[in-house]
Protein backbone atom coordinates (compact mmCIF):
# COMPACT_ATOMS: atom_id res chain seq x y z
CA UNK A 1 0.00 0.00 0.00
CA UNK A 2 2.89 2.38 0.75
CA UNK A 3 4.42 1.76 -2.68
CA UNK A 4 1.06 2.37 -4.36
CA UNK A 5 0.62 5.56 -2.34
CA UNK A 6 3.88 6.93 -3.75
CA UNK A 7 2.19 7.17 -7.17
CA UNK A 8 -1.52 7.54 -6.38
CA UNK A 9 -2.52 9.01 -9.75
CA UNK A 10 -0.87 6.34 -11.89
CA UNK A 11 -1.92 3.56 -9.52
CA UNK A 12 -5.51 4.78 -9.40
CA UNK A 13 -5.55 5.24 -13.19
CA UNK A 14 -4.31 1.68 -13.61
CA UNK A 15 -7.14 0.36 -11.44
CA UNK A 16 -9.76 2.44 -13.26
CA UNK A 17 -8.47 1.44 -16.69
CA UNK A 18 -8.28 -2.19 -15.62
CA UNK A 19 -11.94 -2.07 -14.57
CA UNK A 20 -12.98 -0.28 -17.79
CA UNK A 21 -10.96 -2.70 -19.92
CA UNK A 22 -12.52 -5.78 -18.33
CA UNK A 23 -16.01 -4.23 -18.21
CA UNK A 24 -15.89 -3.59 -21.95
CA UNK A 25 -15.04 -7.25 -22.49
CA UNK A 26 -17.82 -8.37 -20.15
CA UNK A 27 -20.46 -6.43 -22.12
CA UNK A 28 -19.40 -7.78 -25.53
CA UNK A 29 -21.39 -11.06 -25.18
CA UNK A 30 -24.52 -9.11 -24.17
CA UNK A 31 -24.24 -6.80 -27.18
CA UNK A 32 -23.47 -9.76 -29.46
CA UNK A 33 -26.53 -11.59 -28.17
CA UNK A 34 -28.71 -8.52 -28.82
CA UNK A 35 -27.32 -8.26 -32.36
CA UNK A 36 -28.24 -11.89 -33.00
CA UNK A 37 -31.64 -11.59 -31.33
CA UNK A 38 -32.78 -8.20 -32.65
CA UNK A 39 -30.90 -8.10 -35.93
CA UNK A 40 -30.64 -11.62 -37.28
CA UNK A 41 -33.54 -13.42 -35.64
CA UNK A 42 -35.95 -10.49 -36.21
CA UNK A 43 -34.42 -9.67 -39.63
CA UNK A 44 -34.07 -6.00 -38.69
CA UNK A 45 -31.13 -4.41 -40.60
CA UNK A 46 -31.27 -1.16 -38.62
CA UNK A 47 -31.08 -2.99 -35.30
CA UNK A 48 -28.23 -5.11 -36.63
CA UNK A 49 -26.30 -1.96 -37.61
CA UNK A 50 -26.95 -0.28 -34.26
CA UNK A 51 -25.81 -3.26 -32.23
CA UNK A 52 -22.85 -3.82 -34.56
CA UNK A 53 -21.76 -0.20 -34.00
CA UNK A 54 -22.18 -0.73 -30.26
CA UNK A 55 -19.98 -3.81 -30.55
CA UNK A 56 -17.39 -1.76 -32.48
CA UNK A 57 -17.49 0.93 -29.79
CA UNK A 58 -16.87 -1.64 -27.05
CA UNK A 59 -13.95 -3.00 -29.06
CA UNK A 60 -12.42 0.45 -29.37
CA UNK A 61 -12.92 1.13 -25.65
CA UNK A 62 -11.35 -2.21 -24.84
CA UNK A 63 -8.35 -1.55 -27.10
CA UNK A 64 -7.67 1.97 -25.83
CA UNK A 65 -8.24 1.04 -22.17
CA UNK A 66 -6.05 -2.05 -22.57
CA UNK A 67 -3.15 -0.05 -24.02
CA UNK A 68 -3.35 2.65 -21.34
CA UNK A 69 -3.80 0.05 -18.59
CA UNK A 70 -0.67 -1.73 -19.75
CA UNK A 71 1.31 1.52 -19.72
CA UNK A 72 0.14 2.25 -16.20
CA UNK A 73 0.91 -1.32 -15.16
CA UNK A 74 4.48 -1.07 -16.46
CA UNK A 75 4.90 2.28 -14.68
CA UNK A 76 3.56 0.77 -11.45
CA UNK A 77 5.84 -2.26 -11.82
CA UNK A 78 8.92 -0.13 -12.32
CA UNK A 79 7.88 2.30 -9.60
CA UNK A 80 7.35 -0.46 -7.03
CA UNK A 81 10.50 -2.39 -7.97
CA UNK A 82 12.91 0.52 -8.04
CA UNK A 83 11.33 2.32 -5.12
CA UNK A 84 12.10 -0.87 -3.21
CA UNK A 85 15.71 -0.56 -4.37
CA UNK A 86 15.80 3.04 -3.16
CA UNK A 87 14.41 2.33 0.30
CA UNK A 88 16.72 -0.67 0.62
CA UNK A 89 19.75 1.44 -0.27
CA UNK A 90 18.59 4.11 2.18
CA UNK A 91 18.26 1.47 4.88
CA UNK A 92 21.73 0.07 4.21
CA UNK A 93 23.20 3.57 4.27
CA UNK A 94 21.41 4.28 7.52
CA UNK A 95 22.83 1.11 9.08
CA UNK A 96 26.28 2.08 7.82
CA UNK A 97 29.16 0.14 9.35
CA UNK A 98 26.70 -2.02 11.30
CA UNK A 99 25.26 -3.52 8.09
CA UNK A 100 27.72 -6.46 7.74
CA UNK A 101 27.07 -7.43 11.36
CA UNK A 102 23.28 -7.24 11.04
CA UNK A 103 22.50 -8.50 7.53
CA UNK A 104 24.23 -11.05 5.31
CA UNK A 105 25.48 -9.72 1.99
CA UNK A 106 23.43 -12.36 0.17
CA UNK A 107 20.25 -11.04 1.75
CA UNK A 108 20.79 -7.57 0.34
CA UNK A 109 21.78 -8.95 -3.07
CA UNK A 110 18.65 -11.15 -3.20
CA UNK A 111 16.45 -8.13 -2.49
CA UNK A 112 17.99 -6.25 -5.38
CA UNK A 113 17.80 -9.16 -7.84
CA UNK A 114 14.75 -11.32 -7.05
CA UNK A 115 12.53 -9.59 -4.51
CA UNK A 116 12.06 -6.38 -6.49
CA UNK A 117 10.62 -8.38 -9.39
CA UNK A 118 8.07 -10.10 -7.15
CA UNK A 119 7.08 -6.85 -5.44
CA UNK A 120 6.71 -5.08 -8.79
CA UNK A 121 4.59 -7.93 -10.16
CA UNK A 122 2.34 -7.85 -7.09
CA UNK A 123 1.62 -4.15 -7.69
CA UNK A 124 1.27 -4.71 -11.44
CA UNK A 125 -1.40 -7.43 -11.07
CA UNK A 126 -3.71 -5.22 -9.01
CA UNK A 127 -5.16 -3.50 -12.10
CA UNK A 128 -6.03 -6.74 -13.86
CA UNK A 129 -7.19 -8.29 -10.61
CA UNK A 130 -9.56 -5.44 -9.83
CA UNK A 131 -10.90 -5.48 -13.39
CA UNK A 132 -11.43 -9.25 -13.18
CA UNK A 133 -13.48 -8.95 -10.00
CA UNK A 134 -15.69 -6.25 -11.57
CA UNK A 135 -16.04 -8.31 -14.76
CA UNK A 136 -17.13 -11.42 -12.89
CA UNK A 137 -19.65 -9.44 -10.82
CA UNK A 138 -21.04 -7.83 -13.99
CA UNK A 139 -21.48 -11.20 -15.71
CA UNK A 140 -23.12 -12.69 -12.60
CA UNK A 141 -25.66 -9.84 -12.45
CA UNK A 142 -26.48 -10.19 -16.16
CA UNK A 143 -26.86 -13.97 -15.92
CA UNK A 144 -29.02 -13.72 -12.80
CA UNK A 145 -31.36 -11.30 -14.56
CA UNK A 146 -31.65 -13.60 -17.58
CA UNK A 147 -31.58 -17.02 -15.90
CA UNK A 148 -31.33 -17.54 -12.19
CA UNK A 149 -29.90 -21.09 -12.41
CA UNK A 150 -27.09 -19.95 -14.73
CA UNK A 151 -26.50 -16.88 -12.62
CA UNK A 152 -26.26 -19.01 -9.50
CA UNK A 153 -23.73 -21.24 -11.24
CA UNK A 154 -21.52 -18.18 -11.65
CA UNK A 155 -22.24 -16.72 -8.20
CA UNK A 156 -21.53 -20.02 -6.45
CA UNK A 157 -19.00 -21.45 -8.87
CA UNK A 158 -16.47 -18.62 -8.82
CA UNK A 159 -16.02 -18.61 -5.02
CA UNK A 160 -15.73 -22.39 -5.13
CA UNK A 161 -13.00 -22.20 -7.77
CA UNK A 162 -11.12 -19.56 -5.77
CA UNK A 163 -11.45 -21.69 -2.63
CA UNK A 164 -9.81 -24.57 -4.50
CA UNK A 165 -7.02 -22.25 -5.58
CA UNK A 166 -6.64 -21.00 -2.00
CA UNK A 167 -5.82 -24.56 -0.94
CA UNK A 168 -2.64 -24.27 -2.99
CA UNK A 169 -1.71 -20.78 -1.78
CA UNK A 170 -0.72 -21.70 1.78
CA UNK A 171 1.74 -24.47 0.83
CA UNK A 172 3.02 -22.24 -1.99
CA UNK A 173 3.63 -19.42 0.48
CA UNK A 174 5.49 -21.77 2.81
CA UNK A 175 7.62 -23.29 0.05
CA UNK A 176 8.44 -19.90 -1.45
CA UNK A 177 9.55 -18.58 1.95
CA UNK A 178 11.87 -21.59 2.38
CA UNK A 179 13.20 -21.15 -1.15
CA UNK A 180 13.83 -17.45 -0.52
CA UNK A 181 15.76 -18.24 2.67
CA UNK A 182 17.90 -20.80 0.83
CA UNK A 183 18.57 -18.32 -1.97
CA UNK A 184 19.79 -15.69 0.49
CA UNK A 185 22.09 -18.16 2.27
CA UNK A 186 23.55 -19.47 -0.98
CA UNK A 187 24.15 -15.96 -2.29
CA UNK A 188 25.91 -15.02 0.94
CA UNK A 189 28.04 -18.16 0.70
CA UNK A 190 28.98 -17.30 -2.90
CA UNK A 191 29.92 -13.74 -1.93
CA UNK A 192 32.13 -15.02 0.90
CA UNK A 193 33.88 -17.51 -1.39
CA UNK A 194 34.51 -14.95 -4.12
CA UNK A 195 35.85 -12.31 -1.72
CA UNK A 196 38.18 -14.82 -0.05
CA UNK A 197 39.09 -16.92 -3.08
CA UNK A 198 42.75 -15.89 -3.12
CA UNK A 199 43.17 -16.78 0.55
CA UNK A 200 41.28 -20.06 0.12
CA UNK A 201 43.60 -21.09 -2.70
CA UNK A 202 46.61 -20.14 -0.63
CA UNK A 203 45.62 -22.38 2.29
CA UNK A 204 44.17 -25.17 0.14
CA UNK A 205 40.61 -24.59 1.32
CA UNK A 206 39.06 -24.20 -2.12
CA UNK A 207 37.90 -27.87 -2.48
CA UNK A 208 36.27 -27.84 0.96
CA UNK A 209 34.35 -24.61 0.32
CA UNK A 210 33.48 -25.79 -3.18
CA UNK A 211 31.94 -28.97 -1.80
CA UNK A 212 29.97 -27.03 0.81
CA UNK A 213 28.69 -24.68 -1.88
CA UNK A 214 27.69 -27.66 -4.02
CA UNK A 215 25.75 -29.16 -1.13
CA UNK A 216 23.99 -25.86 -0.43
CA UNK A 217 23.24 -25.50 -4.14
CA UNK A 218 21.62 -28.92 -4.21
CA UNK A 219 19.54 -28.01 -1.16
CA UNK A 220 18.38 -24.88 -2.99
CA UNK A 221 17.55 -27.03 -6.02
CA UNK A 222 15.39 -29.28 -3.83
CA UNK A 223 13.59 -26.25 -2.39
CA UNK A 224 13.05 -24.95 -5.93
CA UNK A 225 11.55 -28.27 -7.02
CA UNK A 226 9.13 -28.19 -4.11
CA UNK A 227 8.05 -24.68 -5.13
CA UNK A 228 7.73 -25.82 -8.75
CA UNK A 229 5.44 -28.72 -7.80
CA UNK A 230 2.96 -26.41 -6.09
CA UNK A 231 3.24 -23.82 -8.86
CA UNK A 232 2.62 -26.47 -11.51
CA UNK A 233 -0.60 -27.41 -9.74
CA UNK A 234 -1.56 -23.75 -9.60
CA UNK A 235 -0.83 -23.30 -13.29
CA UNK A 236 -2.86 -26.41 -14.11
CA UNK A 237 -5.73 -25.04 -12.04
CA UNK A 238 -5.64 -21.83 -14.09
CA UNK A 239 -6.46 -23.89 -17.19
CA UNK A 240 -8.53 -26.77 -15.82
CA UNK A 241 -10.95 -25.01 -13.49
CA UNK A 242 -12.04 -22.23 -15.88
CA UNK A 243 -12.34 -24.86 -18.62
CA UNK A 244 -14.61 -27.01 -16.49
CA UNK A 245 -16.62 -23.90 -15.67
CA UNK A 246 -17.06 -23.05 -19.37
CA UNK A 247 -18.20 -26.57 -20.19
CA UNK A 248 -20.71 -26.58 -17.34
CA UNK A 249 -22.32 -23.23 -18.18
CA UNK A 250 -22.39 -24.00 -21.93
CA UNK A 251 -24.00 -27.37 -21.30
CA UNK A 252 -26.66 -25.87 -19.06
CA UNK A 253 -27.33 -23.05 -21.53
CA UNK A 254 -27.73 -25.51 -24.41
CA UNK A 255 -30.25 -27.54 -22.41
CA UNK A 256 -32.28 -24.41 -21.59
CA UNK A 257 -32.20 -23.37 -25.27
CA UNK A 258 -33.44 -26.78 -26.38
CA UNK A 259 -36.29 -26.57 -23.89
CA UNK A 260 -37.15 -23.10 -25.17
CA UNK A 261 -36.42 -21.39 -21.85
CA UNK A 262 -33.89 -19.06 -23.45
CA UNK A 263 -33.55 -17.73 -27.00
CA UNK A 264 -30.78 -18.38 -29.50
CA UNK A 265 -29.40 -14.91 -28.89
CA UNK A 266 -29.27 -15.52 -25.15
CA UNK A 267 -27.52 -18.84 -25.78
CA UNK A 268 -24.87 -17.01 -27.82
CA UNK A 269 -24.52 -14.49 -25.00
CA UNK A 270 -24.20 -17.22 -22.37
CA UNK A 271 -21.51 -18.96 -24.36
CA UNK A 272 -19.71 -15.63 -24.76
CA UNK A 273 -19.93 -15.06 -21.01
CA UNK A 274 -18.42 -18.43 -20.21
CA UNK A 275 -15.63 -17.91 -22.75
CA UNK A 276 -15.02 -14.45 -21.29
CA UNK A 277 -14.87 -15.79 -17.73
CA UNK A 278 -11.77 -17.82 -18.58
CA UNK A 279 -9.69 -14.61 -18.68
CA UNK A 280 -10.75 -13.05 -15.34
CA UNK A 281 -10.56 -16.40 -13.56
CA UNK A 282 -7.01 -16.91 -14.81
CA UNK A 283 -6.19 -13.36 -13.79
CA UNK A 284 -7.43 -14.03 -10.27
CA UNK A 285 -5.40 -17.21 -9.90
CA UNK A 286 -2.36 -15.37 -11.30
CA UNK A 287 -3.03 -12.57 -8.83
CA UNK A 288 -3.08 -15.07 -5.99
CA UNK A 289 0.30 -16.42 -7.11
CA UNK A 290 1.95 -13.02 -7.60
CA UNK A 291 0.52 -11.51 -4.43
CA UNK A 292 1.85 -14.50 -2.49
CA UNK A 293 5.30 -14.06 -3.99
CA UNK A 294 5.11 -10.32 -3.36
CA UNK A 295 4.14 -10.91 0.26
CA UNK A 296 7.11 -13.21 0.83
CA UNK A 297 9.47 -10.68 -0.78
CA UNK A 298 7.93 -7.73 1.07
CA UNK A 299 8.42 -9.45 4.42
CA UNK A 300 12.14 -9.66 3.67
CA UNK A 301 12.34 -6.03 2.73
CA UNK A 302 10.37 -4.94 5.79
CA UNK A 303 12.65 -7.02 8.00
CA UNK A 304 15.62 -5.07 6.64
CA UNK A 305 13.83 -1.72 6.96
CA UNK A 306 12.98 -2.43 10.60
CA UNK A 307 16.65 -2.78 11.55
CA UNK A 308 17.61 0.28 13.55
CA UNK A 309 21.13 1.72 13.33
CA UNK A 310 23.32 1.21 16.34
CA UNK A 311 23.75 4.95 16.77
CA UNK A 312 21.26 7.73 16.18
CA UNK A 313 21.36 11.46 16.61
CA UNK A 314 20.72 12.71 20.15
CA UNK A 315 17.40 14.41 20.82
CA UNK A 316 19.16 17.76 21.15
CA UNK A 317 22.56 17.71 19.39
CA UNK A 318 25.28 19.74 21.06
CA UNK A 319 27.37 21.99 18.79
CA UNK A 320 31.12 21.48 18.69
CA UNK A 321 33.49 24.46 18.55
CA UNK A 322 35.00 25.06 15.14
CA UNK A 323 38.62 24.27 14.44
CA UNK A 324 40.94 21.47 15.60
CA UNK A 325 40.50 20.26 19.14
CA UNK A 326 41.60 17.45 21.42
CA UNK A 327 40.00 14.09 20.70
CA UNK A 328 40.11 11.94 23.82
CA UNK A 329 39.10 8.33 24.56
CA UNK A 330 38.41 8.06 28.29
CA UNK A 331 38.42 4.27 28.42
CA UNK A 332 41.94 3.86 27.04
CA UNK A 333 43.35 7.20 28.16
CA UNK A 334 44.34 8.16 24.61
CA UNK A 335 44.38 11.92 23.87
CA UNK A 336 45.03 13.17 20.32
CA UNK A 337 46.59 16.61 20.28
CA UNK A 338 45.43 18.77 17.37
CA UNK A 339 47.75 19.19 14.41
CA UNK A 340 50.00 16.24 15.32
CA UNK A 341 50.74 12.92 13.67
CA UNK A 342 50.19 10.36 16.43
CA UNK A 343 50.93 6.67 16.10
CA UNK A 344 49.17 4.06 18.21
CA UNK A 345 50.97 0.77 18.74
CA UNK A 346 48.93 -1.92 20.49
CA UNK A 347 50.19 -5.21 21.86
CA UNK A 348 46.94 -6.72 20.55
CA UNK A 349 45.71 -5.43 17.16
CA UNK A 350 42.10 -5.75 18.32
CA UNK A 351 42.71 -3.09 20.96
CA UNK A 352 43.75 -0.59 18.28
CA UNK A 353 40.70 -1.40 16.17
CA UNK A 354 38.34 -0.92 19.12
CA UNK A 355 39.89 2.44 19.99
CA UNK A 356 39.62 3.60 16.37
CA UNK A 357 35.94 2.56 16.29
CA UNK A 358 35.21 4.48 19.46
CA UNK A 359 37.02 7.59 18.23
CA UNK A 360 35.01 7.52 15.01
CA UNK A 361 31.70 6.81 16.81
CA UNK A 362 31.36 3.37 15.24
CA UNK A 363 31.31 1.88 18.73
CA UNK A 364 29.94 3.39 21.90
CA UNK A 365 32.40 4.88 24.33
CA UNK A 366 33.27 7.90 26.43
CA UNK A 367 34.95 9.97 23.72
CA UNK A 368 35.14 13.76 23.69
CA UNK A 369 36.00 16.33 21.03
CA UNK A 370 36.76 19.82 22.33
CA UNK A 371 35.53 18.41 25.67
CA UNK A 372 32.08 17.65 24.15
CA UNK A 373 30.97 13.97 24.38
CA UNK A 374 30.63 12.53 20.87
CA UNK A 375 27.39 10.77 21.85
CA UNK A 376 25.87 14.26 22.25
CA UNK A 377 27.00 15.40 18.80
CA UNK A 378 25.02 14.90 15.58
CA UNK A 379 26.34 11.90 13.64
CA UNK A 380 26.67 13.97 10.46
CA UNK A 381 29.01 16.33 12.32
CA UNK A 382 31.09 13.44 13.63
CA UNK A 383 31.37 11.89 10.15
CA UNK A 384 32.33 15.25 8.65
CA UNK A 385 35.09 16.01 11.16
CA UNK A 386 36.44 12.51 11.92
CA UNK A 387 37.26 9.96 9.24
CA UNK A 388 38.20 6.37 10.09
CA UNK A 389 39.91 4.62 7.14
CA UNK A 390 40.53 0.90 7.56
CA UNK A 391 41.29 -2.01 5.26
CA UNK A 392 37.63 -3.06 5.03
CA UNK A 393 36.89 -0.07 2.80
CA UNK A 394 36.13 -0.98 -0.81
CA UNK A 395 36.93 0.47 -4.19
CA UNK A 396 33.89 0.90 -6.41
CA UNK A 397 33.62 0.59 -10.17
CA UNK A 398 33.86 3.78 -12.20
CA UNK A 399 36.35 6.48 -13.13
CA UNK A 400 39.39 6.52 -10.85
CA UNK A 401 39.27 10.30 -10.41
CA UNK A 402 35.68 10.04 -9.14
CA UNK A 403 36.68 7.12 -6.92
CA UNK A 404 39.37 9.22 -5.24
CA UNK A 405 37.29 12.40 -5.06
CA UNK A 406 33.63 11.25 -5.08
CA UNK A 407 32.26 14.69 -4.12
CA UNK A 408 34.46 16.54 -6.64
CA UNK A 409 35.43 19.03 -3.94
CA UNK A 410 39.20 18.65 -3.85
CA UNK A 411 41.40 21.62 -4.65
CA UNK A 412 43.38 21.55 -7.92
CA UNK A 413 46.41 19.36 -7.44
CA UNK A 414 45.06 17.76 -4.25
CA UNK A 415 44.49 14.40 -5.94
CA UNK A 416 48.00 14.34 -7.39
CA UNK A 417 49.47 15.32 -4.00
CA UNK A 418 47.50 12.58 -2.23
CA UNK A 419 48.64 9.99 -4.77
CA UNK A 420 52.24 11.06 -4.25
CA UNK A 421 51.91 10.87 -0.47
CA UNK A 422 50.37 7.39 -0.72
CA UNK A 423 53.12 6.35 -3.18
CA UNK A 424 50.37 5.48 -5.67
CA UNK A 425 51.46 7.57 -8.65
CA UNK A 426 52.81 4.48 -10.44
CA UNK A 427 49.39 2.82 -10.17
CA UNK A 428 47.73 5.68 -12.01
CA UNK A 429 50.45 5.78 -14.66
CA UNK A 430 50.01 2.06 -15.36
CA UNK A 431 46.22 2.32 -15.61
CA UNK A 432 44.95 2.91 -19.18
CA UNK A 433 43.51 6.40 -19.16
CA UNK A 434 45.24 7.41 -15.93
CA UNK A 435 42.91 9.22 -13.56
CA UNK A 436 40.21 9.02 -16.21
CA UNK A 437 40.61 5.25 -16.51
CA UNK A 438 37.92 2.82 -15.43
CA UNK A 439 38.18 0.89 -12.15
CA UNK A 440 36.55 -2.54 -12.08
CA UNK A 441 34.29 -3.69 -9.26
CA UNK A 442 36.17 -3.81 -5.94
CA UNK A 443 39.29 -2.73 -7.85
CA UNK A 444 39.97 -6.34 -8.76
CA UNK A 445 42.55 -5.36 -11.41
CA UNK A 446 44.79 -4.05 -8.60
CA UNK A 447 46.86 -6.06 -6.16
CA UNK A 448 46.17 -5.93 -2.43
CA UNK A 449 48.94 -3.42 -1.86
CA UNK A 450 47.77 -1.23 -4.73
CA UNK A 451 44.22 -1.17 -3.40
CA UNK A 452 45.54 -0.23 0.03
CA UNK A 453 47.54 2.70 -1.40
CA UNK A 454 44.53 3.93 -3.39
CA UNK A 455 42.37 3.77 -0.26
CA UNK A 456 44.98 5.82 1.59
CA UNK A 457 45.04 8.36 -1.24
CA UNK A 458 41.26 8.63 -1.10
CA UNK A 459 41.39 9.32 2.64
CA UNK A 460 44.03 12.00 2.11
CA UNK A 461 41.96 13.66 -0.63
CA UNK A 462 39.01 13.87 1.78
CA UNK A 463 41.28 15.93 4.06
CA UNK A 464 39.20 15.62 7.26
CA UNK A 465 39.95 17.56 10.37
CA UNK A 466 40.87 14.29 12.11
CA UNK A 467 42.02 11.25 10.13
CA UNK A 468 42.34 7.82 11.76
CA UNK A 469 44.23 5.24 9.70
CA UNK A 470 44.13 1.58 10.71
CA UNK A 471 47.15 -0.39 9.46
CA UNK A 472 47.47 1.67 6.24
CA UNK A 473 50.71 -0.02 5.12
CA UNK A 474 50.17 -3.65 6.10
CA UNK A 475 50.02 -4.92 2.49
CA UNK A 476 52.90 -2.98 0.92
CA UNK A 477 56.60 -3.76 0.67
CA UNK A 478 59.20 -2.15 2.92
CA UNK A 479 60.44 0.35 0.34
CA UNK A 480 56.94 1.59 -0.42
CA UNK A 481 56.14 1.69 3.29
CA UNK A 482 59.19 3.85 3.93
CA UNK A 483 58.12 6.34 1.28
CA UNK A 484 54.58 6.52 2.70
CA UNK A 485 55.87 6.96 6.26
CA UNK A 486 58.13 9.81 5.13
CA UNK A 487 55.42 11.63 3.15
CA UNK A 488 52.41 11.12 5.41
CA UNK A 489 53.36 13.75 7.99
CA UNK A 490 53.90 16.59 5.48
CA UNK A 491 50.73 15.62 3.62
CA UNK A 492 48.73 16.01 6.86
CA UNK A 493 50.57 19.09 8.13
CA UNK A 494 48.35 21.11 10.48
CA UNK A 495 45.77 18.34 10.70
CA UNK A 496 45.17 15.76 13.44
CA UNK A 497 46.18 12.25 12.34
CA UNK A 498 46.23 8.93 14.18
CA UNK A 499 47.92 5.90 12.60
CA UNK A 500 47.24 2.53 14.23
CA UNK A 501 50.33 0.46 13.39
CA UNK A 502 53.25 -1.46 14.80
CA UNK A 503 55.51 -0.77 11.80
CA UNK A 504 58.82 0.77 12.95
CA UNK A 505 59.07 2.67 9.66
CA UNK A 506 55.81 4.52 10.35
CA UNK A 507 56.38 4.81 14.11
CA UNK A 508 59.77 6.44 13.51
CA UNK A 509 58.19 9.33 11.57
CA UNK A 510 55.36 10.01 14.04
CA UNK A 511 55.34 13.17 16.14
CA UNK A 512 54.10 11.19 19.11
CA UNK A 513 53.75 7.45 19.80
CA UNK A 514 51.26 5.88 22.21
CA UNK A 515 51.63 2.28 23.37
CA UNK A 516 48.48 0.41 24.42
CA UNK A 517 48.27 -2.85 26.32
CA UNK A 518 45.05 -4.51 27.49
CA UNK A 519 43.11 -1.58 26.06
CA UNK A 520 44.93 1.03 28.17
CA UNK A 521 47.65 3.55 27.37
CA UNK A 522 50.75 2.41 29.26
CA UNK A 523 53.49 4.52 27.66
CA UNK A 524 53.90 7.59 25.45
CA UNK A 525 56.78 9.38 23.79
CA UNK A 526 58.97 9.30 20.71
CA UNK A 527 59.62 6.00 18.99
CA UNK A 528 63.28 5.94 19.98
CA UNK A 529 62.49 6.77 23.61
CA UNK A 530 59.94 3.96 23.89
CA UNK A 531 62.29 1.46 22.27
CA UNK A 532 64.93 2.27 24.85
CA UNK A 533 62.70 2.65 27.91
CA UNK A 534 59.66 0.40 27.44
CA UNK A 535 60.46 -3.34 27.04
CA UNK A 536 56.86 -4.26 26.21
CA UNK A 537 56.81 -1.71 23.39
CA UNK A 538 60.15 -2.92 22.11
CA UNK A 539 58.89 -6.53 22.12
CA UNK A 540 55.77 -5.58 20.15
CA UNK A 541 57.69 -3.58 17.55
CA UNK A 542 60.51 -6.11 17.24
CA UNK A 543 57.97 -8.82 16.34
CA UNK A 544 56.92 -6.53 13.49
CA UNK A 545 60.56 -6.17 12.43
CA UNK A 546 61.10 -9.94 12.50
CA UNK A 547 58.28 -10.62 10.04
TrEMBL record:
It holds the Pfam family ABC_membrane. PROSITE patterns: ABC_TM1F (PS50929), ABC_TRANSPORTER_1 (PS00211), ABC_TRANSPORTER_2 (PS50893). It is found in: Cell membrane. Its main location: membrane. The chain crosses the membrane at residues 48-68, 125-144, 150-169, 239-258. One of its GO terms (molecular function) is ATP binding. SUPFAM superfamilies: ABC transporter transmembrane region (SSF90123), P-loop containing nucleoside triphosphate hydrolases (SSF52540). Keywords: Membrane, Transmembrane, Transmembrane helix. Residues 239-543 form the ABC transporter domain. Residues 13-293 form the ABC transmembrane type-1 domain. One of its GO terms (cellular component) is plasma membrane. The keyword Signal does not apply. It is a multi-pass membrane protein. PANTHER family: ATP-BINDING CASSETTE SUB-FAMILY B MEMBER 10, MITOCHONDRIAL (PTHR43394:SF1), ATP-DEPENDENT PERMEASE MDL1, MITOCHONDRIAL (PTHR43394). This is ABC-type multidrug transport system, ATPase and permease component. It comes from Micromonospora marina.
